[in-house]
Amino acid sequence: MAGTKDKRGITVQRCSAYRIDHNRLITASRSLKGARLGNFSYGPQELKLGDLSGNRFEIILRHVKGADEQSLAPVLEGIRRTGFINYYGMQRFGTQSISSHSVGIAVLKADWQAATELILKPRPGDRKEVRKARQVWSEKRDARAALELMPQKAALAEHSVLQAFSRKGNENNAASAFAAVPRNLRLMYVHAYQSYIWNAATSQRLARFGIDGPVVGDLVIKAPGFGAKINGAPDAAPNGGEDSADVSSRIEPTLVTARNIKQFTIYDVVLPLPGWAVTYPEHEVKNVYIDLMRQDGLSPFGLGKHPLKEYKLAGAYRHMVIKPRDFEYEWMRYNDDALPL
After folding, report:
1. Does pTM surpass 0.85?
2. Percent of the chain that is helix, strand, coil (3-state, to 5)
3. Distance of CA 141 to the CA centre of its chain
4. Going along 191-325, which residue ranges are E strands?
5. Rounded Cα distance, 71 and 69, in Å
6. 6 is known as an active-site residue
7. DSSP secondary-structure letter at 178?
8. For the chain, what percent of residues have pLDDT higher than 90?
9. What is the chain's alpha carbon radius of gyration, rounded to the nearest angstrom?
10. Is residue 241 left, alpha or beta, with left meaning phi > 0 and alpha meaning psi from -120 to 50?
11. Distance between CA atoms of 235 and 229, rounded to whole angstroms?
């Protein structure tokens, strides 16, 4: 598949299966829980990460309070005409008091003790079983007792760390315990940190220079049309990630100068996700990256020096402002909350 979907949404996506007869898929679909397979066809190539050109959303807002059609119409028209700031959403960072990017900082510093402690640390909002397991670990440092209480499906990273700690002779090996976390989750933490820095740098870029257009020192990559490729390469997320809005560090951005500034628009402006292979803007926002990461004990120019290869972040680029395609909206009146709109 070309990307993952939010498990809490009602989603549709194309998937590919290698040399499998469609009748087997029809049979498999009957036993799937919460999913269906259909609309089968045969093609010459498989789908893979990076093939996704974008997503189409249908969003329904119910119980809208504090605003009416008259006050919301200019906002919606603004999205249609101007677009929106391309921030990473909360799902990238988690919704708990200890965010994923905090663990990412520890990982990038190779501080495995801090990383595992942050993963297991008690926090408000946990399910009852998870809360009890965290409390046992926090108060007794008994990995086996905590593991018995920790549900695997609801807390995979925590379960993996405790399982590793509970092995004989491994009680204090934080590096091995963190390595027991599935790879996609381990990388999620460092990608969350890249996204956190990108969001903060974007806010500073807009606060200092506005949204009217590019300024000298910006970096630009021509914004592609829907399904288009950039310089012959599809949009690709950083370090094998799954966000099709991110452009691979292999694509070289153009530096905006007084001579070429009229060739670009605000939709072409990109900012880098920090990494060893990216270029930074040639204005004061470059120092924003340096200052923000220095506060965390890191440097944007040191992300290729990690002792483990999988955490040597190349970085990527992300367009700062996005103008949605085919944006439409309508107002609907209803009296039944359960009515499918």
Report:
1. no
2. 40, 5, 55
3. 32
4. 219-220, 246-248, 254-255, 269-273, 316-319, 321-322
5. 6
6. yes
7. H
8. 65
9. 23
10. beta
11. 7
